[in-house]
Amino acid sequence: MLNKHKFKRIGFPSFSSMRLLSHLLVLFLQLVPCVVCQVKEFVSIDCGATSTYTDPRTGLAWVSDTGITRHGKVVEIESPNGDIQQYRRRRDFPADTKKYCYTLNTHERRRYLVRATFLYGNLENGDTYPKFQLYLDATMWSTITVLDASRVYVKEMIIRAPSSSIDVCLCCASTGSPFISTLELRPLNLSMYATDYEDSFFLKVAARVNFGAPSKDAIRYPDDPYDRIWDSDLDKRQNYLVGVAPGTERISTPKNIDIRTREYPPVKVMQTAVVGTKGSLSYRLNLEGFPANARAYAYFAEIEDLDRNETRKFKMQQPHVPDYNNAVVNIVENANGSFTLYEPSYMNMSLDFVLSFSFVKTPDSTHGPLLNAIEISKYVHIIPKTDNQYATVLDALRSLSLELDWTREEGDPCIPAHWEWVTCSSNTAPKITKMTSIRWLDGNSLTGPIPDLSNLISLTILHLENNRLTGPIPSYLGNLPSLRELYIQNNSLSGEIPPTLLTGKMVFNYDWNPDLILRKQHKQNFKLILGTSVGAFVIFVVLLLGSLLQLRNLRRKTSQEKNSEKRDSLRIIAKPLNAYSTVRGGSLMDEGVAYYFTLSELEEATEKYSKQIGKGSFGPVYYGKIKDGKEVAVKILADASIHGTHQFVNEVALLSRIHHRNLVPLIGYCEQANQRILVYEYMHNGTLWDHIHDSGNQKHLDWLSRLSIAEDAAKGLEYLHTGCNPSIIHRDVKTSNILLNINMKAKVSDFGLSRQADEDLTHVSSAARGTVGYLDPEYYANQQLTEKSDVYSFGVVLLELISGRKPISIEDYGSEWNIVHWARSLIRKGNVASIVDPSLVGNVKIESLWRIAEVAILSVEPHRVSRPKMQEVILAIQDAIKIEKGSRGYLENSSGSSTMQPSRKTLLSNFLDIESSDLSKGYVLPTAR
Ligand SMILES: *[C@@H]1O[C@H](CO)[C@@H](O)[C@H](O)[C@H]1NC(C)=O
Ligand SMILES: *[C@@H]1O[C@H](CO)[C@@H](O)[C@H](O)[C@H]1NC(C)=O
Ligand SMILES: *[C@@H]1O[C@H](CO)[C@@H](O)[C@H](O)[C@H]1NC(C)=O
Ligand SMILES: *[C@@H]1O[C@H](CO)[C@@H](O)[C@H](O)[C@H]1NC(C)=O
Ligand SMILES: *[C@@H]1O[C@H](CO)[C@@H](O)[C@H](O)[C@H]1NC(C)=O
């Protein structure tokens, strides 16, 4: 009976080689950058396979999982249609309380499609169909319930990799034993499938349907260079696509379709569609795991040649989303052309298990609705993994004895099933409370010293007895706040037992360690203490002298090495700054020491302040030239009252210790006659603002120079955030505070002063410091300042660099008035080309642009937790530089290739294209991507 079930193929196109060639050519030449490199990054694991092989259908290389997992057994399948090699064998795992995992390497924050497939194959008499669970890291992915032994069950998850690897785990069988057929990892490109929620949610694919498909076979690689599986609408699985409206017809075209929007669906999928010739299109399908919140995409491309007097306009009727059912879709208009993809999407839609959807034509339209494809994915909340600090320690413990079976459990120590030798708390962020006895393991042989467990602050019980541990007992064990029981008996530990373990506050068994020394309770011997403390004092003094001498040597050395720009580290100010006389004696521009200028020296240097070169956040800036010929920028602090003498001197001390090649160095200062003046290195090429916005006599900045300036500035900020102690928040990051030296290297200016200034201001005013257009809205709202406020401002800087536009401008952005809203809505529509500075068009690669656009948009997220750290921003910029220096794919001039990233006409009440959520009254609103 069962044999009659048709073995369901994950179809590959029945291609003639000509057709394949032409597809590949199209892909290579126009659509997707570098298909070959993509494929190299594919990970295709055939679970249960006996060898590595290349699938002749696709040219994809499959590896056996033999070297990847040590568990389970291979089961041969007598499949009725066993011609797909991946499904000739499966791997079965024991039905026990453990979990069995595959670890896949990823690039953190890159997006991937992860796919696991399951074909059970044959059911012997007495077998029960398996039912078990599939996890991605600690997140429940799916329950695999086999109901049909000859069907391939496909589970796909779209993720942004949370770290440098992911675990795919099987566990918790309720019937039968867990098994798996294939495991695939497919990197996605650019911003494909980015969502607003990707920090906390994975996307579990619920439906991806190709309408008007030529056969029942699904379309995947090589038609889809990202190897998504596009199910055919002819595939009649249970409850799949029913309720089709009468008059629905299938159409197709051999013409190329421009699919370059955001998700890059395969051309082949877009070349077919269904049309409602009687005025409507409708379908019903089941969505596994729903009701839930979903990300939904519709793909439309006009593939009929419409006459000038013909139109195709329609509205969505179902699902019912008030406000949006009235919006009219006109594909040609929305996509700005026929044979061009229009890809509206809902960012967050609440859908039921049964999804009914329908489109109806408007009365004035001559043609009925058309649909090429849809995709629907469920948001799956990412469950946090066990705190990484435990993982590190556990790795160390395991490394003590690699031979033992218990060290071989994979995946997360606690979720979904905990490792046998650990006990976990059941909080949302699980912690290991107990590492239990390993004494029951025979021949157990933990050898070597006790690994570093000092991070395990919630560890309550530790059993390490009956092993062969050597070395001393670390004294921090006595200070672990939760540790109540410690068993180390029957080992070969040596040295003195730390007294903190002997205070009686914990159960402590250290028998059978012959080399352990138990110190006699120290009888308080006054003389001894006195003796030792005198001794200690002498030693202390000697040490002090020694270090002073060393310091002197060091200083001598550093002043010899002065002007070396390489050293980024903090340096000690050796001379007290409030004792001016000693400072005066110092040699000019001793590193780390701010030189003290008198007012008259500065008057002379600036020729009586004759040449103003700018206005900083704190006051006017003048050009000057000091005695040794060095050019300087002299900054007068306008509001002297906010800086008392003492504070000012402290700040100068702080500032002069901050040295980084991307920060404008402070050379000296003056504090005299109620004047407070700072003297900085002069930056010949002025501000970044002038270079971007003042088209006058400035040199034009090409994209690569902009990237390199961005990288410099980002490094300067990162140093302020992480390299300084205390760390410094700039608070006024903007293009006019990014200065360019004679070699066009960027340095950040005006940092550091803000700290003090603001502390003084807090009781006077609650106004946030910063510049309109760059100001972090969250800081503005609640006055809480973090490094992420600088990240926000820097995001605005990046948008300026991309677009060449000012942060705020009514002319440029209309009612949105600021660059953030304007750019965000366009970028979310996948329309990055339309925000590019016109002077860059033709000389920018779309990929590097995307990389920057993406990180810029993340940086200006309204909530600071969603914003990246400066370090991540730097990485993105460096990525973009790498891409840009490569040699492919320039974004062409818009007149030459208007369809590349068409800026779409936005209908006023555009149906799927409306952004964001402020209209919500209980119902869920679509947003655009
Ligand atoms: C896009 O994909 C190509 C290979 O197809 C790869 O070389 C490139 O780095 C990818 N771009 C990004 C931004 O990931
Ligand atoms: C989607 O919208 C719902 C309702 O407004 C909200 O509760 C949820 O957090 C949103 N995001 C996701 C990923 O579900
Ligand atoms: C459009 O015009 C053509 C002639 O140019 C005519 O044959 C056709 O019927 C017209 N179609 C409609 C819908 O009016
Ligand atoms: C000590 O541990 C060894 C294994 O390392 C075990 O064979 C022996 O029985 C243990 N001795 C005691 C007294 O528990
Ligand atoms: C639409 O396409 C035409 C050429 O087909 C082009 O001239 C026009 O600028 C485009 N409009 C938009 C808004 O992109």
UniProtKB/TrEMBL annotation:
It is a single-pass membrane protein. It is found in: Membrane. CDD domains: STKc_IRAK. It catalyses: L-threonyl-[protein] + ATP = O-phospho-L-threonyl-[protein] + ADP + H(+); L-seryl-[protein] + ATP = O-phospho-L-seryl-[protein] + ADP + H(+). Residues 1-37 form the signal peptide. GO terms for cellular component: membrane. One of its GO terms (molecular function) is protein serine/threonine kinase activity. InterPro entries: Kinase-like_dom_sf, Leu-rich_rpt, LRR_dom_sf, Malectin-like_Carb-bd_dom, Prot_kinase_dom, Ser-Thr/Tyr_kinase_cat_dom, Ser/Thr_kinase_AS. Its EC number is 2.7.11.1. The chain crosses the membrane at residues 528-549. Residues 607-929 form the Protein kinase domain. The keyword Transmembrane helix applies. Keywords: ATP-binding, Kinase, Leucine-rich repeat, Membrane, Nucleotide-binding, Phosphoprotein, Receptor, Repeat, Serine/threonine-protein kinase, Signal, Transferase, Transmembrane, Transmembrane helix. PROSITE patterns: PROTEIN_KINASE_DOM, PROTEIN_KINASE_ST. It comes from the Eukaryota. The keyword Nucleotide-binding applies. This is non-specific serine/threonine protein kinase. It comes from Tetracentron sinense (Spur-leaf).
